[in-house]
Amino acid sequence: MTAHSAIDAPPVVVHGGRLDAARRLYPAAPQPWIDLSTGVNPRAYPPPPLADEVFTRLPDDDAFAALESAARRNYGVPAGVDIVAGGGAQAFIQLLPRVFPAKRVAILGFTYAEHGACWAASSAQVDTAHTLDVLADADVGVIVNPNNPDGRLLAPEEILLTAGLMAQRDRLLIVDESFVDFTPERSVARFANDKALVVLRSFGKAYGLPGVRLGFALCARARAAKLRAALGPWAVSGPALVIGARALADDAWRASAAQDGARDAARLDRLLIQSGFQIVGGTTLFRLAAHPQASRWFAHLASRGVLTRSFAEKPDWLRFGLPGSDAAWSRLAEALENFGGD
């Protein structure tokens, strides 16, 4: 295997969660659909009641400060590292190529395709890397950790060694930690004062509230100032500020959610193995499984109102999110048992 290979980033990346398209393709599927196509916690954090002024006034500095303070404590971010809040990790993935333009970008793959698509759209040469040393030679390196979709997890020491090499050359290493909330010991957030590092965190996945559209960039102050200037004022809505601050301060909820997710992930693995799948990897919030007839499985499950995530580049893979209720578990188990009976 070569150390890296060129990739052609598609102009539009296909994502999970597209229930509208699934309904059109499978109009006879039973309702309601069970959406297992995303890596979002199916047991969402309960949003607190919101005062009218959260909707009727522009967000003020105190609200941003409260959110950033909660994120700092939750993520273990030390003083000297800035926390920039924005409209989800995706907002920063799209913004970074404009704020820190580069000629050569290396992305540790196979991974979340938006990174490659956004850098390619900025006219950068984008390579898929299979080793960390390739990242260190690029102007910008990108690591998704834990990786989406296979859950590959690098130790902080490995990432920091690469960051150190890139810092010596005044280069940038982006670490997308969108799925790290339930394995916080693997986060490099506490080292984000390294001048080479920008660490991205997602709020919506672990807390089950992707519609809130909230995420963070953690980095040294000079980089943070450029990101804030590019985002402009009021980059996060009033409701997102309040909900995010409350949820990130709730340690008991996060600990319970991590336990529930680990239990459900193990249960899902057992179901899939019983149906002939091989577990390739995953995280607490999703499982990646392989099967030689993955495309047939996708269609079979969709016809029964169960949406999974397929990958054109990996035709034998399906990614499964966690069912969120007893009824969803039962329907998934029944659909898995009936494959081949069409």
Description:
The chain has 342 residues and is an alpha/beta fold. It has 2 domains: 7-43 and 252-337, Aspartate Aminotransferase, domain 1, CATH 3.90.1150.10; 53-249, Aspartate Aminotransferase, domain 2, CATH 3.40.640.10. The chain is 39% helix and 18% strand. It has helices spanning 19-25, 53-56, 61-75, 89-99, 113-121, 132-136, 156-168, 221-231, 238-248, 251-274, 294-303, 326-337, and strands at 4-6, 34-35, 81-86, 104-108, 125-129, 140-144, 172-176, 197-202, 215-220, 278-283, 286-290, 306-307, 309-310, 317-321. The strands form 3 sheets. The protein has an 8-stranded mixed beta sheet with strand order 1-5-4-6-7-8-9-3, with helices on both faces. The chain has a 4-stranded antiparallel beta sheet with strand order 10-11-14-13. Helix 7 (156-168) links the parallel strand 6 and strand 7. Helix 3 runs parallel beside helix 9, helix 4 packs parallel to helix 5 and helix 4 (89-99) packs across helix 8. It is globular, with a radius of gyration of 20 Å. It starts with a strand and ends in a 5-residue tail after the last helix. The relative contact order is 0.18.
